[in-house]
Amino acid sequence: MQICHCDFPEGILYDLDNFVWIKIEDKDRSIITVGVTPIILSLAGILTKIKIKEIGTIVEKNKSIGSIESLRYFGIVRCPIKGKIIETNNTIFSYPKIVNDFPYTNGWFVKIKIHELDSNIESGLKKVNLKSIDECHHEIKKLIEKLHVRCFSAFPDYEMFEIGVECAATLTKLDELIRKINIGNIVHVVSDDTSADLEMIRWSEQTGQGLLEFRKEGNLYHFIVKKKK
């Protein structure tokens, strides 16, 4: 399900207090995978460092399984239920941005062996305030609006806020940035030029660079550009 352009898949449960999700593993119903939601990622920006507690650590409910850092943010990732860490996702240590790009798949954090839960795991998890997206989408929408969360089709590597600048000058700066960055990198461009939408479409067609998304919010245009060549 998409809520305010942010993805919240079905088939997993959400802890809205800690901005994390959990997935019940089919192989062993007492094991869950834990990750973070786009809400905390939007607040943090591009992650630069991730720490996770060691395998074998017993984590109490609402206590830390690790931390995330960016240039503007430091936060604790909390486990919504008591259990033992039995596996960690080592990939996110060397490439933290994979969490930004794939929070529900390659960007998971840990697998937890649950302690002291009802024999019916689904009902037991709901007792500790874990909810399906159908049960909490209204709450999530309110959180997104309250925290001014903004999600896009791809998480930006770079941001350009060009307010009060003609689009032609913005595109010149964008060209300079595109030459410096790597293929596949994403740029978030913000402009208040009234012709920005048409100019950006024309620029994408002329340069062959990807225009993945654009939308207008108030008097501002938001563009998501991907370097293709």
Low-confidence stretches: none
CATH topology of the largest domain: OB fold (Dihydrolipoamide Acetyltransferase, E2P)
Coarse structural class: alpha+beta
Give the C-alpha Rg.
20 Å
How many strands appear in the DSSP assignment? 15
Quick overview:
The chain is an alpha+beta fold and 229 residues long. It is built from 7 helices and 15 strands.
Give an account of the 3D structure.
The protein is of the alpha+beta class. It contains 7 helices and 15 strands. It folds into 2 domains: 2-147, RNA polymerase II/Efflux pump adaptor protein, barrel-sandwich hybrid domain (OB fold (Dihydrolipoamide Acetyltransferase, E2P), Beta Barrel), CATH 2.40.50; 158-226, TusA-like domain (Translation Initiation Factor IF3), CATH 3.30.110. The chain is 28% helix and 33% strand. Strands 3-4-5-11-10-7 form a 6-stranded antiparallel beta sheet. Strand 4 (20-24) and strand 5 (31-36) form a beta hairpin. The mean pLDDT is 92.
